[in-house]
Amino acid sequence: MLSQLICNGLVAGSAYSLIAIGYTMIYGVGRLINFAHGELYMCSAFCFYAFYILLDVNLYIAFVLSVATGCVMGIVLERIAYRPFRNYSRLVPLISTIGASTFLKAMVALLFGIQTKSLLKDSSYQQAIDIFNVTITPVQLYTMIISVLAMLLLGVILKRTTMGKAIRATSEDEKSARHVGIDTNAVTSITFAIGGGLAAVAGIMVGYDQNIHPNMGVLAGFKGFTAAVLGGIGNIPGAVIGGFVIGLAEHIGAGYISSIYKDSFSFIILLLVLISRPRGLMGEK
Amino acid sequence: MRGIPPHKSFFITVVVISLILAVFLSCSQKNDGDGTIKIGFIGPLTGPAASYGIPQKNGAALAAEEINTAGGLNGKKIEIIYEDSQMDPNKALSAVKKLIDIDKVSSVIGETTTAGTLAIADTANKNKVVLISPSASGAKVTDAGDYVFRISPSDTFQATIAAKLIFEIGFKKGAIVFTNDDWGAGIEKALREDFSKLGGTIVASEGCTPGTQDFRTQLTKIKALKPDFIYIPLYPAESAIFLRQVKELNVPGQIIGADNFSEKAILKTAGKAAEGVIFTMPSSPSSKAYEEFAKKYKAKFNEDASYSAAAAYDCVNILFQVMKKAGTVGENIKNALYSIQDFAGISGKIGFDKNGDVNTKEFSVVQIQKGDYIPYKKP
User: Fold this and answer.
1) CATH number listed for the domain at residues A2-276
2) Is B337 on the interface with A (CB under 8 A)?
3) Interchain proximity A125–B48, CB inside 8 Å
4) Would you call B241 and A211 a contact, using CB atoms and an 8 Å cutoff?
5) CB of A191 within 8 Å of any CB in chain B?
């Protein structure tokens, strides 16, 4: 049973990591907690539903289109809910993202209805595979693989490209970055786009695995945020580790202690870590 | 007002006074003064239990429309005011307060869920407002107060029937996966106790928070114990993903459901994964009355009618019948309701006992075969 729980935990963890990276990067560049991040995750899943199920687009193309839409939504969110309030007190953009979150949930519910929907087209369930004593479905496997690939890709972008350097510079010190000629506005937009894209990947994969509904982003966003804080807000490798810690904690905790409290385990771990290491596991940036 | 130029402050004063006047004027509209007779409705119109709430809203609306077309209540039209509880007891509480304080209703249809009904029972009792739930089935509603009625039988009823059924099929050990709120936990406790009394064992009882979409951990634990059956008091959205994950994880055991399956919403999302599920639901007499109701419902809403819709339809009609003689004061409605013993409802015969529980309804056992509900015949 332990190996199955670990497997489930890693799958969940990869999704949480992707969401956490978005939170952490947006905080790094804009000093903003984006409370609409869970909704970017949810909206992209519904986009995929629209392309793949409603419009009958090819699976892979629908995936790419939906991730692209996630990126665009990130940019739009930045323009509407963040940029106009950048120079006010930090609470203002935060509250405006809360407003964006409510708006997006309501809009999706209006457009698509509140019923939970399945993203599987021709069947009601996937055929699971049995390997190494664990049962896993194809989409769970892909979730882990694609998440890891996305994270590696992000690492390469951040370390090896000019834009990556610009992002890192802006995260470190926005004023100085501007002084050396970096277009911090563009950097912020791109960061929101990356965050939105990663959340989109997570949303589509989890939605495919677990059905979609307009409130699916609430708990996932919360846990992703918890993972980001757990790893040290602003710290990208921290976000990755935080995501996996939370995924494993909740599945193993639910497995061995109690499934009723499954959602609490992540928060308990957060409490314990912050008490001993207030800057998170890997330190804030 | 300092700092504001005189013309602006005059304008602001005018606006504020108009707003205050508007609020007062709308508040002072008495319930049965001039115009309509207001009845409240609270149910989950959005969220995981919306597949109960919306058919109920529709059923109630259909009943009100028919009553009004036929002349209304003593000449006045019935107006149902709908509030969305979003399956959140806190929101249900705000809704009932708004209905009582602002809309001045003397009766409320709701709430759809056990937790919601329990949350608003106190307020209803204190304000002498009748509460009649189409579907709350938790055991605690029996003692929720004088003004609380329901036309769905208590879960203890349902669990007892399920326990007997399971035992008669020959299953001796099983597992329960339940949603951890008043409804789910109530059924879980009742089934576990009844089944043990009969001699069976529940080897695992796994709860989940309402709205859960990932049951893999619970299923992993259960799979290892190889139960004969899994009993699932879960909400429709949860049930749909649960059934899918049962198949994906290859978990053995007959799935047995409760009245969460009374709405076909699960079938739509779960598809083939729902095949073979056996469940208990309050019987709707397959009578002409139900067929006529189903036709009218389909014509108006372009959807199939269901037990939930019929139950809400009955609630409106019971209130109408009672208010015709007793008037619209809450206390009188309450007293008159207790004397209802054989109201011929679309959802079945309705009579209330001294607790406001319905004691005249029956349950049937149904199996999902090829996407349809077929009466279950024991092999």
Assistant:
1) 1.10.3470
2) no
3) no
4) yes
5) no
Residues B295, B147 within the same domain: yes
The parent domain of residue B104 ranges over: 37-153+286-362
Using DSSP's 3-state secondary structure scheme, residue B197 falls into: helix
Residue B30, domain member (yes or no): no
Of the given ranges (B64-78, B285-299, B314-328), which has the lowest mean pLDDT? B285-299
B114-164 residue pLDDT tens? 889 999 999 999 999 999 999 888 888 888 888 999 988 888 788 888 898
DSSP B139: G
Beta bridge partners of A164: none
Instruction: Compare CB distances from B217 to A8, A211, A214 and report the shortest one's residue.
Output: A8
The answer to whether residues B49 and B133 belong to one domain is: yes
User: Omega into B331 within 30° of 0, i.e. cis?
Assistant: no
Q: Are residues B254 and B182 in the same domain?
A: yes
Q: What is the pLDDT of residues B41-52, one digit of tens each?
A: 999 998 778 888
Q: What is the pLDDT of residue B27?
A: 54
Cα(A43)–Cα(A111) distance, integer angstroms? 11
Contact A211 B221 (CB under 8 A): no
Give me the residue from A114, A211, A259 closest to B46, CB to CB: A114
Rounded to the nearest angstrom, the minimum Cα separation between B246 and chain A is 9
Question: B236 with B371, same domain?
Answer: yes
Task: Write down the H helix ranges in chain B.
Answer: 6-27, 50-69, 89-101, 114-126, 155-169, 182-198, 216-225, 236-248, 265-270, 288-301, 307-326, 330-338
Q: For residue A110, give the chain B residue with the closest CA.
A: B46
| Stretch among A30-44, A267-281, B203-217 having the lowest mean pLDDT | A267-281
Q: If pLDDT is split at 50, 70 and 90, which confidence band does A52 have? A: very high
* pLDDT band at residue A43 using 50, 70 and 90 as cut-offs: very high
| B220 with A255: Cβ contact below 8 A | yes
Question: Is the same domain home to B48 and B175?
Answer: no
Total count of domains within chain B: 2
Which residues of chain B are within 8 Å of residue A114 when distances are taken between CB atoms? 46-47, 50
Position B31 pLDDT exceeds 50: no
Q: What is the CATH number of the domain that holds B93?
A: 3.40.50.2300
Residue B32 has pLDDT above 80, yes or no: no
B248, B370: one domain: yes
Check CB contact under 8 Å for A115 and B241: no
Classify residue B27: in a domain, yes or no: no
Both B248 and B369 in one domain: the answer is: yes
Both B271 and B316 in one domain: the answer is: no
Give the pLDDT of residue B141: 87
